[in-house]
Design a protein that fits this description.
The chain has helices at 86-93, 134-159, and strands at 7-9, 12-14, 21-22, 28-30, 49-53, 56-60, 74-82, 102-104, 111-117, 122-129. The strands form 3 sheets. It has a 4-stranded antiparallel beta sheet, with no helix packed on it. It has a 4-stranded antiparallel beta sheet with strand order 7-10-9-8, with helices on one face. Strands 5-6 form a two-stranded antiparallel ribbon. The protein has 160 residues and is α+β, with helices and mostly antiparallel strands. The chain is built from 2 helices and 10 strands. Strand 5 and strand 6 (56-60) form a beta hairpin. Keywords: 2Fe-2S, Iron, Iron-sulfur, Metal-binding, Oxidoreductase. Residues 1-59 form the Rieske domain. InterPro entries: Cholesterol_7-desaturase, Rieske_2Fe-2S, Rieske_2Fe-2S_sf.
Length: 160
């Protein structure tokens, strides 16, 4: 059972299936079936650095190369997985990614697309200026859906 299905008890993460508990440093600290056993140091899980910034949880596998970007003017709205690379998304959006990993749409400058390239797709986090109305939020969501579909089509055409 994945630990992502587990639960937090105090300062420990516990497996929902066997109940094994792990400390914040990744070492096993409790095995309920063997309450008198002190778990050996070899029973451990990998830990990752997590940081909250601007309403987003940032995870770094290993040592992070940079700090999370400052996006204080924006609020996260939704995330999507796009079966396309950054270049296809940039071409579809009509704008280039900036140093923060953000694309601002020329026709909707209050919408930001935060991109995280993966092996075969790109994770896209739709960001929006914090003061926008519910109607603007719906429009932003529809806009990013259109961009996703068009970028995936562009990516497929290039791959063929």
């Amino acid at each position: 059972m994945r630990l992502s299905h587990g639960f937090v008890r105090g300062e420990a993460l516990s497996c929902i299936y066997h109940g094994w508990s792990y400390s914040v440093s990744g070492g096993c600290i409790r095995i309920p079936a063997h309450p008198d056993l002190v778990p050996p140091e070899t029973i451990r899980v990998a830990v990752q650095q997590i940081e909250e910034a601007g309403g987003i949880l940032w995870a770094a596998v290993g040592q992070p190369a940079t700090q999370p970007p400052q996006l204080d003017e924006l609020a996260p709205l939704r995330s999507l997985s796009v079966d396309a690379d950054v270049a296809a998304i940039e071409a579809t959006a009509g704008a280039k990614i900036d140093a923060r990993g953000l694309i601002r749409l020329p026709e909707f400058p209050w919408i930001g697309l935060l991109l995280a390239p993966q092996e075969k797709h790109t994770l896209l986090l739709l960001m929006i200026d914090r003061d926008r109305s519910p109607a603007d939020r719906i429009a932003a969501s529809r806009t990013v859906e259109s961009i996703r579909r068009a970028a995936e089509e562009r990516h497929r055409e290039i791959a063929e």
